[in-house]
């Protein structure tokens, strides 16, 4: 027979656990090289989820700070940010944040676009003639 104390415990347990859900991400565009860009990921869930970052080619560790300071991850409570300093065109692409807790996980992609002037590679031939301005 179900007793009141069992019902209270069941309600308490059901009310305190929730699978993570990414609630905010934002695509970013960097207008020029050397600019700083911060990607932000926010998640809900109970217990509070931990947030990790990765690209299509590698995992980015939490609290990462590269030796040159190019990439820094900061996390607090339900929000994590990935800051790219002095961005290069090679930083463009997909970044994925994943929120995880003991109940499950959720992932969301965001995209960084880096706009830059075209670069000419290889020898450049310049032709001119007398009278050409």
TrEMBL record:
GO molecular function ontology, one term from the record: axon guidance receptor activity
Domain (Ig-like) ranges: 20-115
GO CC terms: axon; neuronal cell body; plasma membrane
Annotated protein name in UniProt: NCAM1 isoform 26
Source lineage: Eukaryota, Metazoa, Chordata, Craniata, Vertebrata
PROSITE patterns noted in UniProt: IG_LIKE
Signal peptide: 1-18
Source organism superkingdom: Eukaryota
InterPro entries (alphabetical): Cell_Adh-Cytoskel_Orgn, Ig-like_dom, Ig-like_dom_sf, Ig-like_fold, Ig_sub, Ig_sub2
Gene3D superfamilies: Immunoglobulins
């Amino acid at each position: 027979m179900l007793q009141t104390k069992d019902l209270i415990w069941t309600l308490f347990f059901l009310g305190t656990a929730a699978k993570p859900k990414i609630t905010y991400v934002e695509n970013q565009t960097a207008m020029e090289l050397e600019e700083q860009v911060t990607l932000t990921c926010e998640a809900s869930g109970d217990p509070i989820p931990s947030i990790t970052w990765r690209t299509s080619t590698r995992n980015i560790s939490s609290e990462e700070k590269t030796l040159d300071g190019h990439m820094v991850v900061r996390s607090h409570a339900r929000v994590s940010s990935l800051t790219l300093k002095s961005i290069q065109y090679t930083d463009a692409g997909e970044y994925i944040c994943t929120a995880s807790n003991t109940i499950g996980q959720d992932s969301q992609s965001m995209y960084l676009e880096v706009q830059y002037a075209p670069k000419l590679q290889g020898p450049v031939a310049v032709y001119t003639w007398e009278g050409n301005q």
